[in-house]
Each structure stands twice: as C-alpha cells, then as structure tokens.
Amino acid sequence: MCGTNAPISASLMIEEVSRLLKPGGIYMLITYGDPIVRIPHFHQEGCSWKIKLYIIPRPGFQRPGCSSSSSKLYLEPVPLTERGMLPPGFVLEDPDSHYIYVCKKMHATPALPAAIMDPTTPDIVQ
Questions:
Q1: Extents of the domains making up the chain
Q2: Are the C-beta atoms of 60 and 94 separated by less than 8 Å?
Q3: Superkingdom of the source (predicted)?
Q4: Is residue 98 within 8 Å of residue 56, measured between CB atoms?
C-alpha cells in the first residue's frame, strides 16, 4: 500500500476484499499506516465494515517514565469515534507502531458490473 499509485491500489484492494468476503467475514490488515490514512478506504462507497483497531508498539519500545498511560493494555482495542477515527486528544506513544485493523464485513456488497468482472472485455477509451 505504498508507492506512486498507493491510494488507488489500496482502494481497489479493499473493494476486492469486500467483494470476496461474505457478510460476517473478517479481514485483518497489519500495517504501519495510521487510521487517518487507512480508515477512509474502509468507508468508501459499497463497503460496510465494523472495525476494531489495535496498536502494538515496535519490539523493544520503552515507554517514557512520565507516560500517563503506563497501565494501557495493548491487547485491548483502541476506542474509535463514530466515524472510525482515533478520538481527539489520543496520544500515540510510539510513532513506529504497528496498526492491526480487524474488519468485519457488515452486509453484502453490490455486485460489480459484468464488464468489470470479465477480463476479456476490451477497455473502453473515452
């Protein structure tokens, strides 16, 4: 999901995952991409996901001694806003964290047009 066409590729990937999964199916994405970048792809038209987010610090990360969240558990999902974003004021302790998105498909995705599904259909140039 990195590179010149990353936003388009990511969007197409999520659409395809949504098309293949049946309602109730689970898709897991493990990435360095924070929710500001990744969540909009899950909210694109035709997709409906219930998302749980886990943030795991890199191996060897040491919390600062003055950290106010020293009792924070990494095995619990991070609370997200109604729009699926991190809540205001959320402090990320390790900027190099891994983000684990556990996405449950909520309902059927509308079928794609046959022209998109059939690889023998010639490209349409306008």
A1: 1-60+94-111
A2: no
A3: Eukaryota
A4: yes
